[in-house]
Fold each of these.
Amino acid sequence: MIEPFSYSASKMVFSPESRVYPTENSAWPMLEWHALGRACQVGEAEYEYLADSTAEKKFTQFAFSLTVERIPGYFLLQIFLPLAVIMLCAWSIFFVKDGATQLSLISTLMLTVYAFNFFITDSIPKLPYGTFLGKIIIISFISIFLQLIVHLVELRSEREFTARQNVWIALLFVIGFGVANGINWQHASMDVPANATGPTTLNVKNCSNEPSRAEQGSAED
């Protein structure tokens, strides 16, 4: 841990006894992520909020960035699979003959999706932009709500749909659900903000273990 910004650009203090625990060949397992790449930058940064107006305000700053992607296995098994089962149950209700039973079942499934949303709230990343996972849950909720309206219309009309009509309506819901999630998949990456990793620094250069030209020249002399 580097001490707070109270040292000049030519001096910085590490305190391994306070927060850093150095080990050899240390590794940090990331069970939820795949590491795609890493980068390091060093430069000078200026801090205007220092209390001492006479103190040095420019300090050397290191920026380490790690590019990762989320491992989808947990979400496929714990979220997408149960949600797929719920949607299949919803579409199968069209093949139930009694209209009142259809309405009762779809109302129960709507409450199930609502409760399922609360159950997985902690598993969904809390981000300022929409994610594919969050949108697919909303699409599922809207699909079941529209199906509830269809069953209400059928019940109010006092004339049940024929088996052929139920097949076509169910097929229409399946196609609409697939198209909506296809559009969601295409736009998922567009909602992610641009990466702003790293400080706004002066004379930024990549961290390297290779000696600089000045060091090479002094070594040759």
Amino acid sequence: MSSKDCFKTLRHTPFWEGLALLIVGGASQVIPLYSLSFKQTKVVKAPKDSGPTRVKVACCRFVVKLGGWRQFLQKVIGWLCRRFLIMGVITSVYGFLSFKNNWHQRYLALAIAIFIGLLWFLCGFPFYGRRRLQPSPLLTMMRTMIAALQKRHLNYQEHLDQLHRHCGEDQNQLLTDHLEMLNNAAVKESLADDNLPTGNWRLCSVKEVEQSKLLLDLIPMSATFIAYGMVKSLGNTFFLEQADSMSGDIPIIVLQVIKGVTRNAVKGGSKAVFAKRIQRMQRQYSDGVKIGIGMLNSIICCAVASSVESKRLEALRESGLLNDPKARAPISAAWLLLQFCSLGATEGLAGSGIADFFGHYVPDSRRYGPVFADTLAGFGILLNIGFIAMINYYSRFRYKESWVGDSVNERHLDLIYRAYVILAILNCFLYAYVSSSYSYDNIIGKPEDEPEIPFLEVKQEEETVAYELQSIPVR
């Protein structure tokens, strides 16, 4: 079936409605999931002279340090998340192997699992502490730019005594000369500006202006992360088509699990092996080095994929099946293990490095770090469509044939992967230039060093619990 016939068939099905719901659900889960898990148990550092305390949870007794109760809860939540993740992977693999071609049974099993998870989530709803809403860094940046544009006729250096600062902010903080066209946003034009509501589009504080500058400085560096999203999307598109067109008894879900295991192993190993050594020299460079190694690994991933695809096409040619669009190559899918492992290593290095980079440099609310990382990966997926269209246009213009066919056997995936190798190499050079000229002095800190955002409802109860824990002696 051609791509046009496929779209005509999908037009009369609820596929597009389901796709829209999937996109909305995936986009809306990042911030709440992060906030309701580890942010609910934000670590408060204990005093150096604090002693251990015996705590009873259900029928078990634990010894924790004074002030480390929330850190203990964080470890428990992390342990439970890992166990549920392992159970989910096992269930997915079992369902995939059991229901083979019965997709409706797979979706039914997923729907039941999601419904059970929703019920479990609602059971704990009374215990979730509500946090005060924090302003979005992007919204603050837009407010600053619009306010500065409205006051472009002013010279902030002539109104240094009329700068606006919110209550609770550093009243001695000064404006820097960097991106000084934004400094006018903090200038009060009259005394009536003091009565403007918080979050208005006419006046910003000095702190908001400086935070907006930090966010604008991230744009050149962030642009180099988009190519990572383009390479990452190959694992959900062309890699799967390759696996489906090769012989062997290795299911696609097994290859994806191997990629996920490799990603987590490399992510944890990078922190244990070389990240600490880099931090001894200069801590803020660790994120950039990890991203750079991940981008170099993306070159290897695409090169390996091109080599495996050339071998697959050669096997089809020797068997006389190259002109059959539905033929399976007489070559084992085990050849794909290396490229899936390489892609997992790329995600473990570059993906986690990008998330940590935004966690260290995004002003204030670090819960937006995963959102920025996923957004750039999404941009990479969208640009992938344009990149494939460019390759198709180039192949038709230069070689009078299309490299992008209707089936995997009619495509020249080996040549497409080589184009991705060239793209990854160019992006590595661009990243090396941008990262070497980027100022790492504006690091805000690690997420665990961020001051705790107080609860609205349970703050007083937490103080009472802390007092009770302090009064329990250890025998």
